Amino acid sequence: MASLTAQETVYSTTDDGKYVTFRAGGKPGKRLIRQPGEPGWVESFDRIPIIDFTNINHPNIEVRRKLANELADAAENVGFWYAANTPVDETLVAKTFAALEKFFSLPNEQKSEASWMKTPGARGYESFADVAANEGSGNDATLRESFIMGDDLTDPKQYSGPVPEGMKTQNIWPAAMPELKQALDDYYSVLIPFARSILHLFCLALGLEENALDKSHKNPMAALRALHYPPQDANESAAGFLAHADFSSFTLVLQGAKYGSGLEVLNMNGQWISAPYVPGATFTCNVGDYLQTLSSGRFVSTVHRVVNKSGSERYSLPFFFSPDPDAVLKPVVNKKQGSEFETEYSEEPIGKQFMRRLMFARRFHPTAKRLAELQIPDKDWKYEYITGSLP
Ligand SMILES: O=C(O)CCC(=O)C(=O)O
Ligand SMILES: [Fe+2]
């Protein structure tokens, strides 16, 4: 059993002191920073709740419903929660992190053989220099490097049905480390059923049939993003990962015991609440934008960032679970009374919205524009991409 202990609350203040700025829902946003007792201070979380997932697949639906209600409470009031005692075992976690450490320690040329620029959907390796170029943070910034793999209907390890016509191979793998594919495939194949069970809990929590969202998550867009953050200087003002909300239905992040912490979650008072590692293969999880829309804003896609001032290397492994690329996302429940949530949604299939946001995040990168044109050869889209006027 993981120990269900509350963690320390830490505030950090690398913002301008008055506002925190971020990107959420594809738009820039800002939040006023308020100290306790100041006008406008609101009740908001100061820690991330820990939920025991032992009963996630319990045969009795009433037992599952009880867990679903705990999850709903966290999803409504925080948007983040720790999932302890999940079906994912610690040996698998240790093996996966060992593979990631090995991959990131390869020479740059070997990692770059599997560059994201060679794939249709920006899978593969994103170097320190790529991140610096994307975020305009300067050429020598070494804030993070990452490796992405995800859903791929051309990969028989993932999908046994007939490959849809015109479907391209999505993932790319480094020739220098063939065992990376094995390690990430193994982990991914355990995360998919775990995520499906969580989706069922969210349906119960919304008062729907457990399988109500299965039809929009048949061949879900799902991805693992392995991340490596070297320790940042104490006076470095850039974040390892800028403040953002996720474009996913929900995200399940693994953090490793021996690595530095640095994940921080924004509460309603503009305070950064730390979300460090919790022992026992415990996941740090959050609601993403798509579930926020599906739930009419009942579940909140909360802004977060990474600032690794721990003094040690940090590796983390988010798993993003999103709807089918051809799904059109509409709220499946009514808005809560008094909710100020914007209920506007787009009729555009979510896969296209997803790619647009993915490419927008790389808009300063010289090669990203070419990649964007390959992926979505759509005039309007290109226009939006070039001018940066995304909705
Ligand atoms: O590194 C982490 O813990 C979180 C990274 C993250 O927020 C993301 O990949 O969207
Ligand atoms: Fe994120």
Write the layout of secondary structure elements.
Blueprint: E1 19-24, E2 27-32, E3 50-52, H1 61-77, E4 80-84, H2 90-104, H3 108-112, E5 124-126, H4 128-135, E6 145-150, H5 179-205, E7 222-229, E8 241-244, E9 250-255, E10 263-266, E11 272-274, E12 283-287, H6 289-294, E13 304-306, E14 314-321, H7 350-360, H8 368-375, H9 379-387
Helix pairs in contact: 1-5, 2-5
Bound molecules: 2-oxoglutaric acid and fe (ii) ion (FE2).
Fe (ii) ion (FE2) binds near residues 244, 246 and 304.
Order of strands in the sheet with most strands: 3-4-12-9-14-7-6-5
**Overall outline:** globular
Helix content: 25-40%
Topology-level CATH name:
Jelly Rolls
Helix count from the secondary structure assignment = 9
Low-confidence stretches: 1-14, 379-391
N-to-C span: 45 Å
Please report the first level of CATH classification, the CATH class: Mainly Beta
Mean pLDDT: 87
How many β-strand stretches?
14
Number of domains: 1
User: Which second-level CATH architecture applies?
Assistant: Sandwich
Give the ligands present.
Answer: 2-oxoglutaric acid, fe (ii) ion
Strand content: 15-25%
Give the ordered list of helices and strands. Answer: EEEHEHHEHEHEEEEEEHEEHHH
Radius of gyration: 20 Å
